[in-house]
Amino acid sequence: MRLVAPLIALVILTACPEPAPQMDPLEAAAAKKCPTVHLDRLAADWIVASGDVKTRLRIQADGDGYTAFYTGGLFNPMTLKGVKRDKDVRFEEVPSASRLALEASGTAKRRTLLFVQPNYRACSLQVFTGVTDGAKEAVATSPTEFLSFPETPTVFSFEPYSEPLFVGEAAQKKAVADKQLEEIGAPKPDVGGGTVPVAAWSKVAADGDPSCTYDMDLYFDDQLVPELTKQPAGAVDGDSRLWSYNWSAPYAGNHTFQIYRYRTCAGGERARIGIAGIEAILY
User: Does position 123 have pLDDT exceeding 70, yes or no?
Assistant: First the structure.
């Protein structure tokens, strides 16, 4: 008897690629028209849709999340850390050292929150504001629209200043400045208008190599003063370096002064080493 071998069918299995996720038509259009309006690409400068530059937001990539610098309509810039979620990014205020001291004393507990969502239809960001005390959150029900910051020749500050800036007599005498820090923990803000002396002192060793060049850019009311860029730093006295300027400010009310401090070494780029600032009360 002749045996017939059974036919064995060989089936080759080929892995089929998974279909690419379908992008919402509005999101697809926004990806071309305004690519930063996306949870993964928020790093940009933003201004409130009304055009008021006093309310602005700078977002920077930070690992898997973001860091933001937010000025909410007044001279109160703050730093926030953002965590991406399914439909938004939750930003929470990073308190300054002085704010942490207030929190420890029980004087202040609430921190600012921002919830940022892309609005593909309007090519904008919807920003819900809120507060948290660590135990619960309160969030505004209506968002504020932010647009990509327009091209403008005017340069605005975004980041909070982390170094004290002194005005009036304290800007002219380091002993007076040191006394203010000792007695009230901060520079005294009230000063007569007209010509306003402003000054900060830094540690020479912390600034860097003595052979480098040190200069500063000056900001008034959060705006860079073009004619006051690359102003040379002052004299070195012992372990301190002076950064000062006599400012023409014939105004009354609250105004901010800021000194952006820079170092330039041979063959290197101009590098920022600090921001000194104060919200002064001019009378």
Answer: yes
The CATH number fitting domain 25-148, selected from 2.40.128, 2.40.50, 1.10.1760, 3.40.1000: 2.40.128
Helical (H) or strand (E) element with 223: strand 223-224
Cα dihedral sign for 47, 52, 53, 54? negative
Q: Phi and psi of 30, rounded to 5°?
A: -65, -30
- 21-49 pLDDT per residue, tens: 566 777 787 788 899 999 999 999 999 99
pLDDT tens digits, 49-69: 999 999 999 999 999 999 999
- According to DSSP, the β-strands at 271-282 and 163-164 are parallel
Give the residue carrying structure tokens 């933003």.
46
Neighbours of 42 (CB within 10 A): 21
Q: What is the pTM (predicted TM-score) of this model? A: 0.85
CATH number of the structural domain 163-282: 2.60.40.10
Cα gap 23→130, rounded to integer Å:
30
